[in-house]
Amino acid sequence: MKRFAAVVAYDGTDFFGFQVQPNQRTVQGVIEDALFKIHKQEVRTDAAGRTDTGVHGYGQVVAFNSSLDRLSAETMKDALNANLPADVYVRKVHEVGKDFSPRFHAKRRIYHYYILNTPEPDLFKRRYTWWFPYQLDIEKMRQGAKFLIGEHDFAAFRTGKDDRTTIRTITSIRILRLKKDVILFRVEGISFLRRMVRNIVGALVRVGTESLSPETVKLILESKDRSKLPSSAPPQGLVLYKVLFNEFET
Amino acid sequence: MKRFAAVVAYDGTDFFGFQVQPNQRTVQGVIEDALFKIHKQEVRTDAAGRTDTGVHGYGQVVAFNSSLDRLSAETMKDALNANLPADVYVRKVHEVGKDFSPRFHAKRRIYHYYILNTPEPDLFKRRYTWWFPYQLDIEKMRQGAKFLIGEHDFAAFRTGKDDRTTIRTITSIRILRLKKDVILFRVEGISFLRRMVRNIVGALVRVGTESLSPETVKLILESKDRSKLPSSAPPQGLVLYKVLFNEFET
């Protein structure tokens, strides 16, 4: 028995999120279908993170056991890509130890959120950006983001109630203007609550338009009350960009 | 009665080409549906060019008459966008003279063709580029392209037989490497035969891989025989980028 970790990119547009669900097209579902075709038996997978409907993956990490001991990591990559639909692509496969857990061994998770900040929409970017035509003050958003760095109770920035503790650590938030009209939020942390990145971006954008002051971000955080939170940023701008492990390079 | 010309962008992925066809989702069909909702009656449209299934538009020009004399061009633009699906966007609307024909008054048509020239595919660009992982010699492709500039009988570069004359004029072909891994073919001419741009790109790519010499392009052209032609480039890399008129700025 071998254990593999696959680094997986996917276009979330046509998926009902990452996690397997009955009668829904999910990313994990099509990966397990591909593994079934390769192994002629069911193969279960674990992943570094779940992503919601419409959210994309570039560096999702998915681990599974394989009875096909003769297959190298490289051959497994090719076999998976031969059996996956056009909107999922396995970028790398690594052989890992028997106990490897993408969820618990992840050292750091990096999400990217892209805003298209132009007066007119761009059709060709609509699936991968949030089109936001109003002016955004990057410096103000950076000031607001500073209050979120470190270990905090992020209860106010969660959606749903499935997490036992709402204490999380954000190690950095970088906000960059790329090519003049695209704004990238690069949010790095150890782990995240459900919708936490989209909720953070939603709040920071209100700071960027000056409908909230940067200090309000601190008040929202301290309130631990999500009813205080401005609305969430839409899913299509978000990508699970990279998950860092000690075991291998992603 | 007013006459308008709309500059239209569309993502060709989910359309069965531009031209109206019964029981198919076409770009012209959804534009005429939007015009029907606005006018409460059928409105027919003329366009500068047809595009095949999967081909995109950025600067397609569509003209129509409107009985809504009170609507300004700007209001017509907003009304159209309010009634169009997410994959079609009207970038501009101009009021034009009664006799304006986007097909016959077009002075110049510019197509862009994008190749993604990377060892690994990129999911997020798959709808808008041709992924071609092999090395391409840009200089050789430019040498091959030179034989196509000017007025020629392009019978060898057509697909189908619906054109009376196969003589066309190409005014320029520029081949540029953008951001290292994207190659842009910018093909400018007065008008084009069916699939002509994709057939040209298909041939030039074979020159780029050195499976054909640049001079073979000249021999193919002179043969006037499309059975001599290498296969066509796939549709998703092609965009009808701009159509130039004397009447207005596109």
UniProtKB/TrEMBL annotation, chains A, B:
- Reaction(s) catalysed by this chain's protein: uridine(38/39/40) in tRNA = pseudouridine(38/39/40) in tRNA
What Gene Ontology terms describe what this protein does at the molecular function level?
RNA binding; tRNA pseudouridine(38-40) synthase activity
What positions constitute the catalytic site? Answer: D52
Identify the EC number(s): 5.4.99.12
Q: What keywords were assigned to this record?
A: Isomerase, tRNA processing
What residue stretches are annotated with the Pseudouridine synthase I TruA alpha/beta domain?
6-104, 145-246
The top EC class is isomerase
Q: Where does substrate bind?
A: Y111
Has the keyword Electron transport been applied to this entry?
Answer: no
List the InterPro entries.
PsdUridine_synth_cat_dom_sf, PsdUridine_synth_TruA, PsdUridine_synth_TruA_a/b_dom, PsdUridine_synth_TruA_C, TruA/RsuA/RluB/E/F_N
- One annotated GO biological process: tRNA pseudouridine synthesis
Functional description taken from the UniProt entry: Formation of pseudouridine at positions 38, 39 and 40 in the anticodon stem and loop of transfer RNAs.
Q: What family classification does the UniProt entry report for this protein?
A: Belongs to the tRNA pseudouridine synthase TruA family.
Q: How does it assemble?
A: Homodimer.
Which NCBIfam families does UniProt cross-reference here?
A: hisT_truA
Protein name per UniProt: tRNA pseudouridine synthase A
